[in-house]
Amino acid sequence: MSLDGKIATETGDARWVSSLASRHYVHTLRARCDAVVIGSGTLRHDDPELTVRLGQDDLIPELRSPQPLRVVMTTSAARLWHARPEAKLWNVAEASTVVAISSASNSNSSDSDFDAELTAIEQLRLRGIQIADLDAYRPEPPTRALMHWLYERGCCNVLWECGGTLATQAVRDRAVQKLLVFIAPKLVGGRTSPTPIAADLGVLQMREAVPLHITRTEKIGPDQDILVEAYLEREEAACPSFALNAT
Ligand SMILES: NC(=O)c1ccc[n+]([C@@H]2O[C@H](COP(=O)([O-])OP(=O)(O)OC[C@H]3O[C@@H](n4cnc5c(N)ncnc54)[C@H](OP(=O)(O)O)[C@@H]3O)[C@@H](O)[C@H]2O)c1
């Protein structure tokens, strides 16, 4: 994000917030991960590849597999498919893709929506894309359901590279434990420019703010982005409203 906490401009342009050195660092992170997760908003805006693209000199000994699994979360496969029928993630020649669907918020869907959904899922499967049915894990929230689905397939180290909508849920549901925040020395402004945590965390009083433990700060590369590494507190001790919801 920029120093004023924006992850894109008001027009949605996000290329690039952080420096080349930070983006290179993210590729080394991806190389150590089993899966990389985004939401369909990021796919629609950015059409990312989410592959590891490192030079010969960057080979990482711990690299577990050639490419991490690429996951995009949506509440509607049909909407996702029609928004970007030629998305880079649909090309599975170099890396595998999973579309993780949680239809919980689509309970008012009509029969025609249902048919469109089945057709889109069929189109995705024909392209070699796996489908994760997150509804099967209810009452787990979708972000945690995805972590279960990934764990059952051997993915233990998962990197969330999503926008603020999904990031809010991942933090609120404690689907993530660690935050890596790249802060670029620039200002973007804009009342509607996206921010890393874009939705409601259930924090009404400042004393309810989600506490973090900062474990590392580091300057990255010549452009002086700052990397902040922080851990979320365990949910029992952390966000009271989440703890209430969970009981
Ligand atoms: N600078 C950065 O580090 C960075 C990183 C990523 C993105 N961005 C920027 O962020 C903006 C996009 O933000 P965003 O918030 O829309 O992205 P996002 O969080 O990646 O995607 C949001 C979408 O995820 C899906 N989703 C959310 N909650 C879900 C749930 N519980 N179950 C299933 N699917 C769920 C929904 O898709 P459906 O509507 O299909 O249901 C929702 O519209 C873009 O401008 C992009 O450039 C910046």
TrEMBL record:
A matching Pfam family: RibD_C
GO biological process, one term: riboflavin biosynthetic process
Domain named Bacterial bifunctional deaminase-reductase C-terminal: residues: 1-222
PANTHER family per the UniProt record, alphabetical: 2,5-DIAMINO-6-RIBOSYLAMINO-4(3H)-PYRIMIDINONE 5'-PHOSPHATE REDUCTASE (PTHR38011:SF7), DIHYDROFOLATE REDUCTASE FAMILY PROTEIN (AFU_ORTHOLOGUE AFUA_8G06820) (PTHR38011)
UniProt pathway annotation: Cofactor biosynthesis; riboflavin biosynthesis
Keyword NADP set for record: yes
Tagged with keyword Signal: no
Name the record gives this protein: Bacterial bifunctional deaminase-reductase C-terminal domain-containing protein
Record key words, sorted: NADP, Oxidoreductase
GO molecular function per UniProt: 5-amino-6-(5-phosphoribosylamino)uracil reductase activity; NADP binding
